[in-house]
Write a structure and sequence with these properties.
Chain lengths: 390, 304, 270
């Protein structure tokens, strides 16, 4: 197996075109991988396929196991259970230097005693590339991350943004089949982070390299990744596109972790075509669009995103014949939070609950803005609601 | 005015007492060593001709300067005994420091790789022998190395030798003694740099395709050089002037400079020559001393 | 987060061999101090004979008493001066002669003892000072205060400066801020410094040989002259007692530092 790995490594490091598996086969297949530290199960049976050329994000709160999973892909941890297949071959127990996978470290881990050039040349040199090839590769990488002219600098003579680029160039210099990025933007300030996100996406599209990024920042994951795997307590809670993750979260936990949400616990009452009628504990009776009938019992939760809750003084005009088509909740403005682009109102409902509504500030001078203790109607359509298990 | 500067003023007052103490008891004595190294030997108590008598005015001062002689230094340069002692001191110090580095590095490296909880334990274990008396540690080795000592008994029992080996009064015994006594001084600075090193650096090297051996030589070792420097200086400088270990463990046919100095001073009562020997030793060690001083200052003041 | 086991067999072997090398000779010495036989290498059964012999040896007892007095007094003076020096160096910012000051403090750490001893002796002779307890104490103070300074300075350097600033913000003047906040926090280092100074003084042969006078030999001077004459089991007993004393000092000091600081400052950074 070591022999095959060496070949793979050589192919990834030296050949100009990285070898990709057959199109029907995922580049990376993680099968039932688990890792336990003492009694703590950091990664608990994760299975996941990643296709070649994907930009995949592992998203989760700190301690959820996403970094451990990434470190197992890089080879810094060996899984206790399961397999990790890269191009069909199990690499779960291969050592880090035997894998055609490179990693960009959260701390960048640039070698402080080596120049920028030597940092970038470190990987190609280990792959046995000739001097001339290495020079070409370094020049190419410097151009790729727009750092030409800084070859001779030492890492401590660079700015944070420049260091981040060197780390990226170094990790890409061996043309890995898979690039792992561990919180790559965490050390940058907000403005730089946003522009770097764009550059990373552009780079990934151009190179076609498969990227797996670990982040705790949902906005970052949603901006960059084509697919997101949300991790919680060592398990993959949901793998979906950013839109699906936000609009159709699979559980209460995901709905609350990704973005803001209003959640109302209640009981399923009856079905009306594609709609369910749910009696909630503190927001009255709600009608939601849901083709499936709840399978396990009658208890469930209704989730509605704040920007989908509209406010008005009088409430919407009911459509004729569709008395239940729109959910309307009466209440009083209890709190106003002005955020610039939008304003979040907390409305205390007459039925006891609180609903948050996020209203876009579409006009500079808003004479219609609601004031504290004003009576308002919060309303939303059944299609904007998601039914979740309690 | 910043809070730090408000703090600095009373802090500077704290310097007065130790400053005066060190000037009087560390700096000024060197002037005496220099002065006596330039005076003539006399059979008296104290055994040298006083050269200065500041109470006698300028004329006597001039006379005193005229009486200064560099005879003692000439003696040191011309007499093979002294030249040989300096050469031997440096050879012993270089060899012993190399041995210490060779033995100490793997230990420090092992310590730095222990789980954090065990690192503290290992550090205490390395420090504790240092707290037990230095003379005791040498004495312990005399116990082991003597003619019918433990080492020979073990070697005989294992049939590795047919007759007891003479260990005491040899260079091997001296090197064992030096390595044993100075090992903590080599290990601790090495350990300090290795433990501070970010583990991600070694991981990055192996991630970029370096097998373990290359990871060590390309990343770990170069980054531990400050620790190597500190350890080497911390051992090399005092070993050059070492007296007790060669005196008790090495043979008496070739002496180190610390021993000759001791001999001149206590046995021959030739204070001026002993002083001159000390001055030469100090000059030999000046560069490493300055290097050490710089390193120490940088290390202790980097947090500021 | 824990890593893939970074400890190789080579690491474990070098640790085990290294620690064995450090401890075996001391262990053997302690065991043989309880040997009934006069021959150091022949095991004649357990006995306290050599301890009796030591306690009957008036000259040794006097030397031990002298050493303890010198160690206790020089360590105390050195701790005071060394702490002051450390405060000046780590909190005094820039001041005139700072480089000379730090140079004078760091040089004795590595300076061959023969040089330090000889130069101090020449000073005492020039001052016509009567050599004995006080000259040895002063000489030891000069050496050990440097060690105290380094130990305390490294603790001060790692201390969060905003603690002092917070104390001043809450109405302390700098001196009171130091006494109320800094001093308790560096107390473990000061204790460690005192211990280090104490054991260094108890240990020193060379400087004491130069600076002491007739009739006031310290324990190492006595041991040294006995050892030169050959191995004597009584020395094993004395050495074991010294090791025991130092062990007690270490245990007390580490307990004290545990009590006074929850940060787990290890016994000594040196």
């Amino acid at each position: 197996m070591a022999e095959e790995l060496r070949k793979m490594e050589a192919a990834a490091g030296v050949a100009d075109v990285a070898t990709h598996p057959a199109p029907d086969q995922p580049l990376l297949r993680i099968e039932g991988v688990a890792k336990t530290f003492g009694t703590f199960r950091a990664v608990d049976g994760v299975s996941l396929d990643i296709r070649a050329g994907e930009f995949f994000a592992l998203l989760g709160p700190s301690g959820c196991g996403k970094t451990t999973l990434l470190r197992m892909l890089a080879g810094f941890e060996a899984p206790d259970e399961g397999r990790i297949l890269l191009g069909g071959k199990d690499i779960a127990h291969a050592l880090p230097h035997e894998r055609p996978i490179n990693m960009m470290f959260q701390s960048y881990a640039l070698f402080p005693h080596l120049s920028v050039r030597d940092n970038i040349a470190f990987g190609p040199k280990r792959a046995g590339m000739g001097r001339a090839d290495i020079d070409t590769r370094v020049a190419e990488m410097m151009a790729l991350v727009k750092l030409e002219g800084l070859e001779k600098r030492k890492p401590d003579q660079l700015s944070g943004g420049q260091r981040q680029r060197v780390a990226l160039a170094r990790a890409l210099a061996r043309r890995p089949q898979l690039l792992l990025l561990d919180e790559p933007l965490a050390a940058l300030d907000k403005k730089l982070r946003e522009s770097t996100q764009g550059e990373l996406m552009e780079l990934q599209r151009r190179l076609g390299t498969t990227f797996i990024i670990v982040t705790h920042d949902q906005e970052e994951a949603m901006t960059m990744a084509s697919r997101i795997g949300v991790m919680n307590a060592g398990k993959l809670a949901q793998v979906a596109s950013p839109r699906e993750l936000y609009e159709a979260p699979r559980s209460r936990w995901i709905a609350e972790f990704v973005g803001d949400v209003n959640l109302f616990d209640g009981e399923f009452k009856l079905r009306d075509g594609h709609r369910l009628v749910i009696a909630t504990r503190d927001a009255g009776t709600l009608v939601v669009a849901e083709p499936r009938e709840p399978t396990d019992g009658t208890r469930l939760s209704v989730a509605i995103r704040p920007e989908k809750v509209k406010l008005s003084r009088l409430g919407p005009v009911s459509e004729a014949g569709h008395e239940t088509a729109i959910n309307r909740l009466d209440g009083m403005v209890a709190d106003i939070c002005y955020l610039g682009g939008s304003t979040v109102y907390k409305v205390k409902l007459d039925t006891g609950g609180i609903v948050q509504a996020s209203v876009a500030n579409s006009a500079r001078l808003d004479a219609d803005a609601y004031s504290l203790n004003q009576h308002v109607v919060a309303w939303f359509t059944p299609d904007d609601c998601v039914v979740l298990p309690p | 005015m910043s809070a730090r500067r408000i703090f600095a003023r009373p802090a500077r007052f704290a310097a007065i007492a130790p400053y005066v103490w060190m000037v009087l008891l560390f700096l000024v004595p060197f002037a005496f060593v220099l002065k006596i190294s330039l005076s003539q030997t006399a059979i008296a108590q104290p055994p040298y001709e006083p050269v200065f008598d500041l109470t006698a005015g300028r004329a006597s001062l001039e006379a005193a300067f005229a009486a200064l002689s560099i005879d003692n230094f000439k003696l040191l340069v011309s007499d093979d005994l002294y030249v040989y002692a300096y050469v031997r001191s440096l050879t012993v110090a270089v060899t012993a420091t190399a041995l210490l580095l060779l033995i100490g590095y793997p230990i420090a490296y092992g310590m730095a790789r222990l789980p954090t909880r065990w690192q503290a334990v290992a550090m205490v274990l390395v420090i504790v022998p240092f707290w037990t008396s230095f003379l005791i540690r040498i004495y312990a080795w005399i116990n082991i190395l003597q003619h019918d000592g433990l080492l020979n008994r073990i070697l005989l029992a294992l049939h590795l030798v047919s007759q007891p080996v003479v260990w005491l009064s040899t260079d091997s015994a001296m090197y064992i003694g030096i390595v044993y006594s100075y090992l903590p001084f080599m290990i601790l600075p090495l350990y300090a740099t290795l433990a501070k090193m970010e583990p991600a650096l070694e991981e990055a090297a192996s991630d970029l395709g370096a097998p373990p051996r290359q990871v060590f030589w390309l990343v770990t070792f170069p980054l531990s050089l400050p620790g190597v420097g500190a350890g080497v200086l911390l051992c090399f400088i005092p070993i050059v002037g070492e007296f007790v270990i060669p005196d008790l463990l090495a043979g008496s046919n070739s002496l180190m400079i610390g021993q000759t100095l001791w001999l001149e001073f206590f046995t021959n009562k030739d204070w001026p020559v002993a002083s001159a020997a000390a001055i030469v030793l100090l000059v030999v060690l000046l560069v490493p001393l300055l290097l050490y001083e710089r390193l120490q200052r940088r290390q202790l003041e980097q947090g500021r | 987060m824990r890593k893939r086991s970074r400890l190789s067999h080579f690491n474990i072997a070098s640790l085990a061999l290294g620690l064995g090398f450090l401890y075996l000779p001391i262990l053997i010495l302690v065991i043989y101090s309880f040997n009934a036989s006069r021959l150091v290498t022949v095991w004649g059964g357990w006995s306290l004979r050599w301890y009796h012999e030591f306690f009957g040896d008036r000259a040794m007892i006097e030397a031990a008493w002298m050493s303890l007095k010198v160690a206790a007094s020089s360590a105390s003076i050195a701790t005071l001066l060394g702490t002051l020096a450390a405060v000046a160096l780590s909190r005094g910012e820039r001041f005139g002669g700072r480089t000379l000051f730090s140079g004078m403090l760091y040089a004795p750490l590595v300076m061959p003892e023969v040089i330090t001893g000889l130069s101090l002796l020449l000073l005492f002779v020039a001052l016509n000072a009567e050599r004995g307890f006080w000259t040895v104490t002063i000489a030891h103070t000069t050496l050990t205060m440097c060690f105290v300074a380094v130990v305390v300075q490294s603790r001060l350097g790692s201390l969060d400066r905003s603690l002092e600033e917070a104390a001043m913000d809450l109405g302390c003047d700098p001196v009171r801020a130091f006494v109320a906040v800094t001093l308790p926090l560096i107390a473990p280092a000061i204790i460690a410094g005192w211990m280090l100074a104490f054991t260094l003084s108890l240990d020193d042969l060379v400087i004491a040989s130069f600076t002491t006078g007739p009739g006031s030999a310290t324990l190492p001077i006595r041991i040294y002259s006995e050892v030169r004459l050959g191995v004597k089991p009584e020395i094993n007993a004395i050495c074991t007692l010294v090791i025991g004393l130092i062990a007690i000092v270490i245990v007390i000091a580490s307990l004290a530092s545990k009590l006074s600081s929850a940060q787990g400052e290890s016994a000594a950074p040196l």
